[in-house]
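Quick log. Single chain, no ligands specified.
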Amino acid sequence: MQYLFSVWQEFSKRLKAARHVLLLCDYDGTLTPITESPELADLSEKTRQLLRDLTHQSRFTVSVISGRALADLRRRVGIDGIIYAGNHGLEIEGPGIGLVNPLAEEMRPVFHLINQVLNKAMAPVKGVHVEDKGLTVSVHYRMVEEGKSEEVKNIFERVIATARSLGKVRITSGKKVYEVRPAVDWDKGEAIALLIDRYGKAKTKQELLPIFLGDDSTDEDGFKVIEKHGGISIFVGEKPVRSAARYYLTSPAEVEQFLERLVHPASNG
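-> predicted structure:
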């Protein structure tokens, strides 16, 4: 894995050669720093303006793809004309597209019940936040006292054991979060592949350059799809031991610098 800014000339050549760029960004930990509580992860005005500037350039299509619920993501980013992919791509909305995974939609009442049970079971543990995202449920425990993480894990596994044994849900984990998702064959990688197909139909492989930035294990599926399509995959964070991404940037602050270079390429050599 290479540090992207150290090979910027190489990247710039590919960028200039592309007729169209499909820029896909994760939200938490990529466009914004990871915060103690998900409610505190607000997009900076500078990053918002840079994304808005890119949407006004005809050769860019911009998407924010996140584990957050679509409505929450759209409210936080607040930019017209971009593609929003919420719940790891289970729900997508943007120019010329609007879809919700039908199998996940059928599971909505089940997830409403799971949310209620998890909220009740986690109530005794201070600092746990159970997030109802409609099509999925997340259990955040970043604010839990040190030494209580195992208790959170045990409660979580006990609550979802039945649903998991029936094959109704699948579990993923990230940075101090457990996620309960419908047991459907869909993830960020599948969503990105759909967007590449949808927005790249009129372009050859050489003309369309897909770029994806993400910071967590749930983004690895996306990196793999980007590499398969000859795009540019960028991990955000300290260089990991293992990742399918080809490049890395160290922080959301560097992502902001990256976006600025995309908006103003002439000033970066």
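The CA atoms of residues 48 and 219 lie 21 Å apart.
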